Amino acid sequence: MDCWQTFTFLRVHRGSERLAELGDPVRWTATSAIDTPEELTAALERHFDDTTPMVVEMSPESTPGVIAVKPKRALHLVSAPLDVEMPLTAIALEARVESQGSISPFTVVVHDPINPLVELMRTDFVLLDSERMQCVLDFPDQIFPAGARLWISLSFLGGATLRDVAVTLYRVPRERAVPEWWLEHRLAPTGEFGGRVGDDTEQIGYSGCSTTYHLSILISPLWLR
To answer: 152-164 pLDDT, tens per residue?
Structure first.
């Protein structure tokens, strides 16, 4: 196997200065539970081994509600099939979190828009002494085709109650997304983590024979401003 094609390089950023550079933000919210879309069934069974997955619809027109997430069980935020093509450079996930302890480990997964069996990015976070969660995942630019679904999975190690769950989509012109999209599919995967993270490290690198990005990040209230 040629590992050169599976090297991954990651950066961790503090603060919100770079958010303005990402693209045109569009805010969606998550509310009501829906039946599992048929095209996602195989991926859910393979990656999550959950016979009764918790699937919640997200859209630009919904009103946020309260979502209870059981320990070690994933919440799947899924959109309706897109009416038109949507080039994206990043996705931000935010919510108010009520958990049992002051330390709340959680995992976020962004799934590939074309092949649900593939993960664009998987990241472990830890929420420290805070009820506010906000993380930005700047994966290689993607072109979500018309008819595809946006799919984000979120799980808490100890369970949690989520309020005001929102997803911000950072859209870019198609011509801007094409270079990274092409390289991501043809050459080495790359990704960046941005937003508010409780880590003084400006840059972290990781390499190995894996196409899934996996990094642990602490989110502290000191950086939530």
So the answer is: 999 998 889 999 9
Quick one: which of 163, 91, 101 has its CA closest to 127? 101
Amino acid symbol at 170: Y
pLDDT 10s digits, 191-219: 444 444 333 333 333 222 333 333 444 44
- Among 167, 168, 192, smallest CA distance to 180 is for 192
Retrieve residue 93's tokens: 């996930």
Enumerate the domain spans of the chain: 3-223
Instruction: Name the DSSP class of 45.
Output: H
Fold of 3-223: Jelly Rolls (2.60.120)
Give kind and range of the element (H or E) at residue 127: strand 119-128
Residue at 105: amino acid letter: P
